[in-house]
């Protein structure tokens, strides 16, 4: 029965699609425009935007990165495929910047994901006033990098900051925070803990989407809380884990505003908080006088390639992501 | 038997009360910890100079005049610039994003899927890669040190993330509205501006809020393209005012008051639109 019906509709479709008698070239152009025109018009702004603000600068940046000297005012000079690449690997600051950024990404991405997930689990319980707790914990995320930079620089002041005053009151050694190279990175991560509210909200929205039936079934089987977390909650959240992992890695490798506002525009003691993008910025600020525009672009492209490779690897190994039944 | 059951029930209830109070305790402590930076700002902004420098936990005298001191001439200029940039972005980004989304949801054209894939993949490009050559162009066409570079890119497309959100939302609106209106003789623009754009209101509000906070707080773009104090936005102005060596300036009281001016608009927006923000996060939650 079904078969016959589908056959009939297929035939109807075919006769509908049968080409109308061939017209002139102009006719086919009119037809093409009638079919596509509206879409083209609505897609025009974004296409222009992509061409002017993404495609052109992306290619221009690649082009400049092959020149030894470029000062914006004069045309680039000294084409060389490897000059800027070799310069990067012999630049101590660049090595420091990429090490710092790598270490920070390796530690902070998994750590913040796990902490914010734990926080979301905690805030997912049914209890009176949970909405207020959620709001309060989210509150610091309302502070922008600039504002939190202002607040935190005073809060972690070695002599007069609240944290060290509290430590002294408890008869403990004051913590050096940003005043020593060895504790700077830890301080940055510590301050970052206050912005866990943002990812927490994302996790919460995902936790809400998990159907209660799954948990009820597990309860009937007498599963423990931990077992339910491992076998239901985490697999059901895996698309969000996947999405957050990629987005966090891309964003963390580009860390700039959070660190530069905390250090007040410096790279920290002994460059302990020199990040990759900070390095690009500082070389960009001086590139007109030093003619190192090509080098700056090369560093930026290197970052792009690294991000593209990492994203590719994560996508390739994304078999663990569970996309539900539909 | 009966008494035992009652005892059981009582025990269960006691256990529940205990676990709830432990949860409350943990949550209260956590909330207080998370509020430290904001509490510090509020309290310090009312202190006298010396007191704030010493890092007292509470003001002995309340100095409300810090908030007047913070509003100097420069601040007002920065504020005006921020209002212009934020205003333009808040208006144009949602408009541009829904406009573009309409092309992908209610239109058909050659290369549609390819274009959409390209738009999504631009999210992967670090913004710094494109910003440097753009700087060269802006210098050449005279946009450097003007607010234009902070506004024009937004009008063209509205950003990959917003386009994606708008498309997700628009797909949930029934296509029969479009068909009915078209039969009645409406052209594509009527269909978009009169039907789909108003129906996208929830996601438009979400985009306006996120754009507001994002642009209001943005520091990287202004840092690149603005080098003249009279053009600074509030975020950049405040950042430059207080940057320098790691040792903060002498008196944090006015600094915190200035920061409060930066913080309060975002906090107000957050409190008013909490519901919409959470709904928006859920709409954007990826499903594959």
Could you walk me through the main structural features you see in this protein, from its secondary elements to its overall organization?
The complex is a heterodimer of chains A (326) and B (288). Chain A is mainly α and 326 residues long. Chain A has one domain: MetI-like (MetI-like fold, Orthogonal Bundle), CATH 1.10.3720. Chain A is built from 16 helices and two strands. Chain A has helices spanning 2-17, 25-64, 83-89, 92-122, 130-138, 145-155, 162-169, 181-192, 197-209, 212-220, 225-236, 238-253, 257-263, 276-285, 287-290, 293-316, and strands spanning 67-69, 77-79. In chain A, strands 1-2 form a two-stranded antiparallel ribbon. In chain A, strand 1 and strand 2 (77-79) form a beta hairpin. In chain A, helix 2 packs across helix 16, helix 4 runs antiparallel to helix 12 (238-253) and helix 12 (238-253) packs antiparallel against helix 16 (293-316). Residues 1-17 of chain A have low confidence and may be disordered. With 288 residues, chain B is mainly alpha-helical. Chain B has two domains: 2-45; 72-284, Orthogonal Bundle (MetI-like fold), CATH 1.10.3720.10. Chain B is built from 15 helices and no strands. The mean pLDDT of chain B is 85. At the A-B interface, helix 2, helix 5, helix 6, helix 9 and helix 12 of A face helix 1, helix 4, helix 5, helix 6 and helix 11 of B.
